[in-house]
């Protein structure tokens, strides 16, 4: 029969906005200060994002993911940058309403758009507000890494360049290690495959990170394939608007589905847990119902925040908007979409 246990609630974190920086006419950076007792929960890696609760007059609040543009490698407050988009409910609400002193509800930093090491040479591609996670990686690599960084940054015009002054300052602070190439549509036109291939060619063997509008990322991915960049060196950050409310209570487990109950062994934060996995239920729901603080954000298979490594057993995923074929071959799965197929499954979040 269906469980009658109350649904566990998602514990939202709180952070106060201490400053709003107008980067451009339509892009605002929010400087954040977490509550002291929650500061450890805000530990993050370069390239990760925060999921914000956005008030709404609809049946449920909206939620959006915004990348951290600050670096965890230096003593600075957390920062996220939001660019106003046409008909964008969340971005317009933030730009019109959020001021210093405002308290935001967020989920823990998450995401897999993260370098495995900072001690390498990087080729970074960004367009528009896609520069935000790239900026975090760029600063972290310069501060804590030993390699060189090339950023190819596309914008509509010079007035649209987010972090323009900061990039100039970083170029001066790290001579010989940072090279910034600006591409302006008003001057060079929309980025095309031939031009992007030519720009990527000298850096084909570097670790490449790409973020921006879909067509831009598709173009860059193809250009890197042409110049021979190894697939495992190409990293792409894809965001989609969230349909559901990730802050909503977790659904209780369903115990009525046909099939055998599996067992799941989970490695997380240095601990190993063994749980029953009733048929028909998704892995993330099993973990959250058991009180395990597993990472997640969208709960829709669209953001990669809940990615873990399948070490033993088999699962099937209902939906996957973010993991590439190579990710799947390496054993990566989305906990929010995975259902057990084998009697025993072992997964890890430690990778």
TrEMBL record:
The gene is hmp_1. Residues 10-116 form the FAD-binding FR-type domain. One of its GO terms (molecular function) is 2 iron, 2 sulfur cluster binding. Residues 262-351 form the 2Fe-2S ferredoxin-type domain. Keywords: 2Fe-2S, Dioxygenase, FAD, Flavoprotein, Iron, Iron-sulfur, Metal-binding, Oxidoreductase. It is an enzyme of class 1 (oxidoreductase). Signal peptide: none annotated. It holds the Pfam family FAD_binding_6. Its cofactor is FAD. InterPro entries: 2Fe-2S_ferredoxin-like_sf, 2Fe-2S_ferredoxin-type, 2Fe2S_fd_BS, Beta-grasp_dom_sf, Cbr1-like_FAD-bd_dom, FAD-bd_FR_type, Flavoprot_Pyr_Nucl_cyt_Rdtase, FNR_nucleotide-bd. This is Nitric oxide dioxygenase. Its EC number is 1.14.12.17. SUPFAM superfamilies: 2Fe-2S ferredoxin-like, Ferredoxin reductase-like, C-terminal NADP-linked domain, Riboflavin synthase domain-like.
